[in-house]
Amino acid sequence: MEFASPVYYLTLGHVSQDLTPDGLRLGGTVAYASLTAEAMGYTAGVVTACADITDLGALARVAVHRLPSPASTTFENIYTANGRVQYLRARAMPLRPEHLPLEWLRAPIVHLAPLVGELDTDFLSAFHGAFIGLTPQGWLRTWDDSGRVQPQAWDNALAYLEQATATTLSIEDVGGDWQLLERWAEIANVLAVTEGRHGCTVFVKNRGRRRFSVLPQTELDPTGAGDIFAAAFFIHLYETGDPWAAARVANHIASISVTRIGLGGIPTPEEVSVARLRADLVL
Q1: Interstrand relation of 16-20 and 200-204 (parallel, antiparallel or unpaired)
Q2: Is 251 within the bounds of a domain?
Q3: pLDDT tens digit string along 238-262?
Q4: Is residue 190 within 8 Å of residue 169, measured between CB atoms?
């Protein structure tokens, strides 16, 4: 099928402002994933909502369709020996399919990337013939009155998993519940579960599962590593149809990202080339 679109890799979801000891930092899956796609040679686009004062300068190489919002989605991440503690400090307006630029509806790769439940199932019928990649973390968490983020059940899992080409998420997103993941894997076409420094496990319908380790790195900042993994995984799977090779490429690229701070973890084209070469060398 031929596609005619100004963007080839389209990401949908909120950018975020991450509160850090050094001030506000741009984040969100759409930021990390779109820049990774650009580094992998794809024209990237983002549909998002945020306040006017949010600095999107880091996305200068990406086509951004920004909807105005009274606030930007804002998180505070605190990393402890027992994992990340996250607080939601503000939330931007939800996104709807009618917010999509018409000329982007034929993007070949579409990445649904909610942070705080800002996308709904209507987006699944907005695209026809596209590779649909899904990172469902925004449907897998809720927050209390203090803003502390906690896991929650994913009510629409069946609808999304059946229709997505591939889904990636962190083991932390489900509180370490492998039984739940195994049930989802029976529904999903491809399900990749990231496990931090332990690598990832990939389930493929009717083909079983494989676990992929990763070379240890000196970790400076793990924020965004899962988003970088997702974009690399989706793109290599789209290019080759090989989920095992996609896991190796994504593992390598994501592992490097934790050695740098924030969006500095986006891979260089040279790092992408090395990751692809390493995947090709493994039989």
Answers
A1: unpaired
A2: yes
A3: 999 999 999 999 999 999 999 999 9
A4: no
Strand ordering across the sheet containing 23-27: 23-27, 16-20, 73-80, 83-90
Candidates 100, 141, 101; CA nearest to 122 is 100
Domains contained in the chain, number = 1
Share of the chain above pLDDT 90, in %: 77
Q: Using CA atoms, how far apart are residues 45 and 64, in angstroms rounded to an integer?
A: 6
- Residue 129, domain member (yes or no): yes
| 66, β-bridge pairs | 48
What's the gap between Cα 229 and its chain centre? 7
Report residue 120's pLDDT band, with 50, 70 and 90 as the boundaries: confident
Encode pLDDT of 51-65 as tens digits: 999 999 999 999 999
Token readout for 267 is 């891979």
* H or E stretch covering 38: helix 29-39
Q: What three-state secondary structure class fits 106?
A: coil
Long-range contacts of 96-101 (CB under 8 A, 24+ apart): 96/120, 96/122, 97/122, 97/123, 97/125, 97/126, 99/47, 99/49, 99/65, 99/67, 100/12, 100/47, 100/65, 100/126, 101/47, 101/65
Longest dimension (CA), the chain: 52
Tell me, what CATH number does 103's domain have? 3.40.1190.20
pLDDT at 3: 47
Distance CA 99, CA 142 (A): 24
DSSP state, residue 267: P
Of 28, 155, 21, residue with least CA distance to 91: 28
